[in-house]
Amino acid sequence: MLRIVKKLVFSPIVMVALYVAAIGIKPASFFHWYQPMPPVKSE
């Protein structure tokens, strides 16, 4: 029972940690992918 509980609690923490690490390491690349068309033609 303890092993199952630990896995259920640990998995989301690991996922969030990896997600935050990825964003912290390369925020520029994430912004590039999430913005398919940057507002360049504002004139």
Give me some keywords for this one.
43 residues, mainly alpha, rod-shaped
Outline of the structure:
The chain has helices spanning 2-25, 27-34. With 43 residues, the chain is mainly α. The model has no long low-confidence stretch (mean pLDDT 70).
Task: Describe the protein.
By secondary structure, this protein is an all-alpha fold. It has one domain (2-32). Helix content is 74%, strand content 0%. The protein is rod-shaped.
Low-confidence stretches: none
Our estimate of the beta-strand percent is under 5%
Radius of gyration: 18 Å
Distance between the termini: 62 Å
Order of helices and strands: HH
Structural domains: how many? 1
The secondary-structure class comes to: mainly alpha
Number of strand segments? 0
Please estimate the helix content: over 70%
User: Please, what is the average pLDDT?
Assistant: 70
Largest sheet data = none
Which term fits the overall shape? rod-shaped
Helical stretch tally? 2
